[in-house]
Design a protein that fits this description.
The chain has ten helices and seven strands. By secondary structure, it is α+β, with helices and mostly antiparallel strands. The protein has one domain. It has a three-stranded antiparallel beta sheet with strand order 5-6-7, with no helix packed on it. A hairpin with a 5-residue loop joins strand 5 and strand 6. The chain is globular and about 60 Å long. The relative contact order is 0.11.
Length: about 270
């Protein structure tokens, strides 16, 4: 047992040290990429400790969860086919585009017109289980290791949403996007975009170890209880065009894609 503890400790120290070295190289590049109105670091944790800690924890997670990753990958291959990994471009820190990785949860079924069927028709029972357990998010540990993401931060959104941010909302990109975030533990899909951005900015303006730990603990609790998870196959639309889902007998409203909600707003006047 002592040898196991020593091995884990040594592995943790080594990965954290490597994280510090990588972080120093990344900081040199960040100096030339930041916008002029970029928020300054809030404190020591954000400036020097958060990135090495992310690297170390992601490395350890990939080592110890390797069997889970392998089993999940095999099940995805058997039940959904190839490719096993879903990738999509998302904006990250300072607006830099990166590829987000997840396990696939939907089939590639197409209609008579050759186009993919709606998400709710392609989402399988197996895919629902992956999403409700958050196992589909595990490949994002590689994004964290690469420095594209952090364990905690604003969730990376679609690149199509970028033209619809207000100037203030663009500051959500002052920090790395996260595997989980303040908005995710305060409603996720069941709150408005304005509330989501408010939580994102609240986090980006005050990044602390205490806040990160609180968000991670709240996330673990919600994953275990399977809270704030919208089942795409159970989403309905009412006569007013609003999307909602029934959860435990309650009718909860879902926000629409940002580009749909804000498309009728004059871009120059309000969103740029």
């Amino acid at each position: 047992m002592k040898r196991v503890v020593r091995f884990i400790t040594a592995l943790g120290v080594a990965s954290f040290t490597l994280g510090i070295v990588i972080s120093l190289f990344e900081k040199r590049k960040d100096k030339t990429d930041k916008r002029e109105d970029h928020h300054p670091f809030y404190g020591f944790y954000e400036a020097y400790f958060k990135r090495p800690l992310d690297f170390a924890l992601a490395f350890l997670a990939l080592v110890f969860l390797a069997p889970v990753l392998m089993v999940t990958a095999v099940l995805v291959r058997v039940k959904l086919g190839s490719p096993v990994i879903f990738s999509q471009e998302r904006p990250g820190k300072d607006g830099r585009i990166f590829k987000l990785y997840k396990f696939r949860t939907m089939t590639e079924e197409k209609g008579a017109d050759g186009k993919l069927l709606p998400d709710e028709e392609r989402l399988t029972d197996f895919g629902k289980k992956l999403r409700s357990s958050s196992l589909d998010e595990l490949p994002e540990f590689f994004n964290i290791l690469a420095g594209d993401m952090s364990f905690v931060g604003p969730r990376p959104l679609m690149t199509e949403y970028l033209p619809y941010y207000t100037k203030r909302e663009q500051h959500r990109h002052d920090v790395r996007p996260g595997l989980t975030g303040l908005a995710q533990v305060n409603g996720r899909s069941f709150i408005s975009w304005e509330e989501i951005f408010s939580y994102d900015l609240q986090y980006a303006e005050k990044v602390t170890l205490r806040n990160d730990i609180a968000i991670i603990l709240a996330t673990v609790s919600k994953v275990l209880k399977k809270e704030n998870i919208a089942d795409a196959s159970a989403v309905e639309q009412d006569s007013d065009g609003q999307w909602y889902v029934q959860v435990n007998g309650r009718k909860l409203r879902l926000h629409q894609p940002l580009n749909l909600e804000r498309r009728n707003i004059h871009a120059e006047r309000d969103w740029q």
